[in-house]
Amino acid sequence: MIDTAHLYRTYAHVKESIRGYSGEVLIASKTHAADAAGARKHVETALREMGIERLDVLLLHGGRVGGPFTERAEVFEELCRMREEGIARTIGISSHLISVIREAAGNPDIDVIHPLVNRTGMGILDGSAREMADAVALAASAGKGVYAMKALAGGNLISSARESISWVMALEGVHSLALGMLSEAEIKANVELAGSGSAPDKVWEKLEKGTRRLIIMRKFCSGCGACLEVCKDGALSMVEGAASVDRSACVLCGYCGAACPDFIIRVA
After folding, report:
1. DSSP notation for 175-193
2. How open is the CA angle 225-228-231, to the nearest 5 degrees?
3. Considering 208, 229, 252, which residue would you say is the last residue of a domain?
4. CATH number for the domain including 37?
5. pLDDT tens digits for 81-132?
6. CATH number at residue 247
């Protein structure tokens, strides 16, 4: 299963990765469009650029949207139409909010949910990790497919990767999880961990002690300044309306990542 989105601009990479592959591939994508026409255009772009005929999962890219089924009702109706047309096998929503996951659990048109959940609750906007876990279990019991995101909180939990990944995989109702990976070693270690529940200590100790750096996805920064308020080391500043980091001053505490309402600051 490959998780992507219109925002990620990775369709060309996905197309190359599945070229010549004979095994089963499930592709999930998301649209952040504000209207039906935009959503359809996003899906048409996805199909064209990946060279496929349909998406296995099509999500409303909810993120921090508090009321996606009302605020983006037009978009969700278009997703339902595209499922009827067969260009999306299943539809659903991604969200960082417990309230949205609970609402999705009771929505008969939702097939799949993609919730933010990790053992510390980092990035969850309206409650705790335990509360999100309960919402996930509720959705799964209602027959929704669940694949989790942010098990490592955007890289902030890399030093406890095994514990953090295992915690999410053990949650009631979690069927799968999407993990960002930066190397072949990480891919192999994660596959082994997911498959057998364990992996060689020597491999993981190296991965968990790997060099990390603060990454700010500046093009998605809203310029709210919340990260600057929590940085006690003076490592962050606003440059041309977006947060910027002075790596020589950054101690990788990760507090800015937890404070960022847009979840665009990662330690990786």
Report:
1. -EE-----SHHHHHHHHHH
2. 155
3. 208
4. 3.20.20.100
5. 999 999 999 999 999 899 999 999 999 999 999 999 999 998 788 999 999 9
6. 3.30.70.20
